[in-house]
Design goal:
By secondary structure, this protein is α/β, with parallel strands linked by helices. The chain contains 7 helices and 10 strands. It has one domain: Rossmann fold. The structure holds 2-amino-2-deoxy-6-O-phosphono-alpha-D-glucopyranose. It comes from Geojedonia litorea.
């Protein structure tokens, strides 16, 4: 779906999320959201906060699972995704803190594999992700599933691509300070989500959007796996859609 700009697109996606939360509320069910970080979903979270403050949208039945976190990463650090989510969404709505899950960037290395299994088990025990929000990296990564990730990959510790680290290096004031690894939800759990909405804005994403939507389904472009999902959409502004 191509919108005029990222503002109208973000509002439309926020409305879909709000409608889903309300349907689940009326059914007395939790609403399981898969959430993304990066600059792309910022407008979406701002609109969800507005819907909470101005239209009384409650997040009390929402249980969220974030896609990823840098490793190592302290939760209070300026670049942590825990902090990002608190500052942009969690601190401004009535979601219960115990219902907010972001991968733990502080675990000792030997505990990461078990932790990742538990992260997936928690999602499964709740019946899976109802709606997964995604951004896309310049190399086609989803979460931190970099080029070469397998379609059945599990939640795990990954090495970040050079191109991903360069893109993040401004935030970390230089490549040397940029983490080399991260914990990411695997492609398999993303593909198991009941609905997936990938967001992309701007000309700089247009080539990878074309490769993801119109190119072959290949490990080199993990977002291309979504072609095989039966309920996934790409929500784009005109610039991101300009090469389609
Ligand atoms: C990071 C995140 C991804 C995100 C990507 C794109 O790598 N881990 O989840 O989709 O950046 O970031 P941006 O939205 O800032 O372009």
């Amino acid at each position: 779906i191509v919108y005029e700009n990222s503002v109208t697109a973000s509002k439309a996606v926020a409305k879909e999320i709000a409608d889903l939360i309300r349907v689940k509320q009326s059914q007395k069910q939790p609403c399981i959201l898969g959430l993304a970080t990066g600059s792309t979903p910022k407008g979406l979270y701002a609109e969800l906060v507005r819907l909470h403050k101005e239209e009384g949208l409650s997040f009390k039945n929402v249980i969220s699972f974030n896609l990823d976190e840098y490793y190592p990463m302290e939760p209070d650090s300026i670049n942590s995704y825990v902090r990002f989510m608190k500052e942009l969404l969690f601190n401004h709505v009535d979601i219960l803190p115990e219902n907010c899950h972001v991968p733990d960037g502080m675990l000792p290395k030997e505990r990461i594999a078990d932790y990742c299994d538990q992260y997936e088990a928690k999602i499964e025990s709740l019946g899976g992700i109802d709606l997964q929000i995604l951004g896309i990296g310049g190399n086609g990564h989803i979460g931190f599933n970099e080029s070469g990730s397998l379609q059945n990959s599990k939640t795990r510790l990954v090495a970040l691509d050079h191109i991903t680290r360069v893109a993040a290096s401004n935030d970390f004031s230089g490549l040397n300070n940029t983490p080399r690894t991260a914990i990411t939800l695997g492609v398999k759990k993303i593909m198991e989500a009941k609905r997936v909405i990938l967001l992309a804005w701007g000309e700089s994403k247009s080539n990878i959007i074309r490769a993801s939507v119109e190119g072959p389904v290949i490990n080199q472009v993990p977002a291309s796996f979504l072609q095989e999902h039966n309920n996934a959409i790409f929500v784009l502004d005109q610039a991101a859609a300009s090469k389609l």
